[in-house]
Amino acid sequence: MPDFLSATRTSYDRVAESYALHFKDELAGMPVELSVLGLFASLVDGPVLDVGCGTGLATAELVRLGVDVSGLDLSPGMLEVAREHLPSVRFETGSMLELPHPDNTFGGVMTWYSTIHVPDELLPAALAELARVVRPGGHLLLGFQVGDEPMHMTSALGHELDLVFHRRRPEHLAELLAAAGAPVETHVVRVAREGERTPQAFLLARKAE
How many Å separate Cα 52 from the centre of its chain? Predict the structure, then answer.
């Protein structure tokens, strides 16, 4: 396993329960995020895979919107919490660099702040892998932090961590998605709120038919 995957998995395993408690009501006060998720839910046709689902916070919103969604995450600890809160949803352990699904399986794929941990040199391959499992005409939704410099986090919520957060420009990610066969159709950026370090961006792409 690449070093960044091991470090990311271990970090999220450590912080899983604290993370779930700290962020459990976060989406309720985020109208832009809820609108983006609602748009995605209205467009997808068929099952959706939430890649890097964590404790299932965004997954739960898709469930509420009536989406047939399953989750995949690198961290068994995060998935244990997700299963407790969403027992009707199927969750599996895995990496977005090698998804355990055949080509053209899903009507949509969502990565809600999970591509942020993928190093720059592996990002094109990760996005190509996400697009691979989406049906022609299906949609991909990415949420991420805007910026140019990565941030290395060594502690949070009382736990020691080793997490790198890659901030990226929406235009760059849009180019990579287009190269993967999924041109961006909707591009949303909102300014940083109090307590946030960067603006937040959301790209909705559609795989070519």
Answer: 5
Alpha-carbon distance of 16 to 161, in angstroms, equals: 12
155 CA to centre of own chain: 21
Nearest-CA neighbor of 143 among 160, 124, 167, 162? 167
Distance CA 79, CA 52 (A): 10
59-117 per-position pLDDT tens digit? 999 999 999 999 999 999 999 999 999 999 999 999 999 999 999 999 999 999 999 99
Alpha-carbon distance of 121 to 108, in angstroms, equals 25
Strand pairing class (159-165; 151-156): antiparallel
Amino acid identity, residue 142?
Answer: L
pTM: predicted TM-score of the whole model, two decimal places:
0.94
